[in-house]
Design goal:
The structure holds two protein chains of two kinds.
Chain A lengths: L2 E7 L3 H11 L5 E4 L28 H15 L2 E3 L3 E6 L3 E6 L2 E12 L3 E3 L12 E3 H10 L7 E5 L3 H12 L3 E7 L8 H9 L4 E3 L1 E7 L6 E6 L12 E4 L2 E4 L3 E3 L2 H6 L3 E4 L4 E4 L12 E3 L9 H18 L5 H18 L2 H19 L2
Parallel strand pairs in A: 1-2, 1-6, 2-3, 6-19, 8-15, 9-10, 9-15, 10-11
Antiparallel strand pairs in A: 4-5, 5-6, 7-16, 12-13, 13-14, 17-18
Chain B lengths: L16 E6 L2 E6 L4 H7 L6 E2 L6 E2 L12 E4 L2 E5 L10 E3 L1 E2 L9
Parallel strand pairs in B: 1-7, 3-8
Antiparallel strand pairs in B: 1-2, 3-4, 5-6, 5-7
The chains are: A alpha/beta, B mainly beta.
């Protein structure tokens, strides 16, 4: 493990897809992941993927995850779980802790596919037990099959907030209300309709004011906001809840890219500060690539395509694919990505992605 | 509270159970699940108290990132219970402050 052709950091949809593309044409590939299971967040996604005309619509995340793991096994890539990458040093050296041992692994190419972390909202009482991230709820409910509570207040109406609300309902909890600070629902109407039909009110221009309870969440006070986003006094309402779930968006998990010295730029629609990358997913540092949420917050399906693109480009750069073969493969990926970044929700992301790629050319 | 019936996931396969001890009380856990899942299923909400203000904390991220769910496990403090699998006979304690590190736990 002291030398590898391709080191991929993160075994989520992007990392696994890159591994499949690269290893299947002969690139010696290791995927590092700190978790005990590969697949990233896919195994928490029990809903059907859709919102795009591209492939995999209709499949559940858990099944997409199983499928990717099968393809990785067939590709010859190695996955090292329970393995933390803690640093990246000059000369593409990767600092890895595995089996309690520190190893420096020199990699000809590095792909950062570290994903994202959840944004949180700080309000009085937000540290009380019972206030949880949407990812935590999904982990507990969909993976471990444990309900963290009976009565839930959901914060945030993006697709995550809507889908997790529905998953809580499916698991037998009551979602008392969903509050959204914006003047509109953030996610797809079809997800919102499902939870509205189940009786959960979606309150736009509302937010949480505080959570109270003795040792755990017992009540939440919500409040209405005016068009400037300020609290309208006198509109407070108190709800009896034992769980407050935050679904306030994601931010790229880009620490390793910062450490390595990648050039960053601010592209708000993709989640803020991001390492710039070119149309091969290569960052400002030669030999270092990004894919998935670290390259802009999107969806698992786009992460899969970006991972594939990076895997193909890396294989080409190492001489495992001819330029002609690589061009054909990349075109197929780009066509699918374009379909995914379509429609009223996708077009903003497509334009933002084009901005990000354009900025990689600036010096 | 455990979810026994699920419209998408269906019924659970037959599970193997183990026993862990939490603050002196025996708790039934499913082999292989994280400590935090077993405790949450048993209704435990407070996993630790902070050092200065003694504020209660519980599970927040459930993927080993935030360290809110740290407890003392078999004498070792600051164990992230959300990513540490249960083992039969494990002794789990609510942690106060930073916990005490012993030379030979």
């Amino acid at each position: 493990m002291n030398h590898v052709e391709l080191a991929i950091i993160g075994a989520g949809p992007a990392g696994l897809s890159a591994a499949i593309e690269a290893a299947s044409v002969g690139v010696q590939t290791i995927v590092f992941d700190e978790n005990q299971q590969a697949g990233g967040q896919l195994f928490k996604q029990i809903h059907k993927f859709f919102g795009s005309r591209a492939h995999q619509a209709g499949a559940r995340g858990i099944d997409i995850g199983k499928n990717l793991l099968g393809q990785v096994a067939a590709s010859g890539a190695e996955i090292k779980l329970d393995t933390v990458v803690w640093g990246i040093f000059e000369g593409n050296k990767v600092g890895v802790v595995t089996n309690g041992r520190n190893v420096i692994c020199k990699a000809d190419r590095i792909l950062l596919a570290t994903g994202a972390s959840e944004n949180v909202l700080a309000f009085p009482g937000w540290t009380l037990p019972g206030v949880m991230g949407a990812g935590a709820i999904q982990t507990m409910v969909n993976v471990h099959r444990v309900l963290p509570g009976k009565r839930v207040l959901m914060i945030g109406s993006g697709n995550v907030g809507l889908i997790v609300s529905y998953q809580l309902l499916q698991a037998g909890a009551e979602v008392v209300a969903l509050v959204e600070a914006m003047d509109r629902i953030g996610g797809y109407a079809v997800h919102a309709s499902k939870i509205k039909r189940a009786g959960t009110p979606i309150l736009i221009r509302h937010t949480i004011k505080e959570a109270v309870g003795n040792g755990k969440v017992e009540q939440a006070t919500i409040v209405q906001l005016n068009d400037n986003g300020n609290v309208i006094e006198g509109t407070e309402r108190t709800l009896d809840v034992d769980v407050i779930c935050m679904a306030c968006g994601l931010s790229p998990l880009a620490e390793l890219a910062w450490l390595a010295g990648c050039r960053f730029t601010d592209v708000a629609p993709l989640g803020g500060l991001l390492p710039v990358h070119d149309d091969n997913m290569q960052t400002s540092l030669p030999g270092m690539y990004v894919a998935g949420d670290i390259a802009g917050i999107e969806e698992a399906s786009t992460a899969i395509e970006e991972g594939r693109l990076a895997g193909i480009a890396i294989a080409e750069s190492l001489g495992y694919l001819t330029t002609t073969d690589a061009t054909v493969k990349k075109q197929a990926v780009n066509d699918r990505s374009e379909q995914l970044r379509d429609g009223p929700f996708g077009i903003t992301r497509r334009e933002a992605k084009e901005t990000l790629i354009r900025r990689s050319l600036e010096t | 509270m455990r979810i026994t019936q699920h419209p998408i996931l269906g019924k659970r396969d037959k599970q193997q159970y183990v026993k862990i001890i939490c603050d002196g009380q025996p708790i039934e856990a499913i082999a292989g699940e994280p400590i935090a899942a077993a405790l949450m299923a048993a209704g435990k909400t407070i996993f630790r108290y902070t050092r200065k203000k003694k504020d209660p904390r519980g599970v927040f991220c459930a993927i080993g990132q935030c360290t809110e769910c740290m407890m003392t496990v078999d004498g070792i403090p600051n164990v992230r219970t959300c990513i540490t699998p249960v083992q039969d006979g494990m002794n789990v304690q609510t942690q106060h402050g930073l916990g005490q590190v012993k030379a030979n736990p």
